[in-house]
Design goal:
Layout: H1 41-44
Bound molecules: iron/sulfur cluster (2 copies).
Length: 82
């Protein structure tokens, strides 16, 4: 299985309020992910540098250009460790 920073159960639409995965029927953690990951629709609308864990940090891919409203392919959810 691939290891990815941007996709985790916390931003997957299959995560249910009781921290159970709707797809697999098991308890999951915010640090898990899998190949059935589906990005939450609400989060898709809010993808930009201000919601990126890397914003103003050492792992930002575009530190000179990063600003609210911009987005690049290195975006990571704020619960992730960038
Ligand atoms: S489908 Fe995969 S990524 Fe989504 S909540 Fe279930 S285990 Fe997590
Ligand atoms: S430029 Fe990319 S990595 Fe940097 S804060 Fe914006 S989305 Fe994140």
């Amino acid at each position: 299985m691939s290891i990815r920073i941007g996709n985790s159960c916390i931003n997957c639409q299959n995560l249910q309020p009781n921290e159970t995965c709707k797809t697999h029927g098991v308890k999951v953690s915010t640090s898990y992910t899998c190949d059935s990951f589906e990005m939450k629709t609400a989060l898709k609308k809010d993808l930009n540098c201000s919601s990126c864990a890397r914003f103003e940090g050492p792992t930002c891919a575009n530190p000179k250009k990063a600003t609210a409203g911009m987005l690049c392919s290195h975006w990571a959810p704020q619960n992730a460790q960038a």
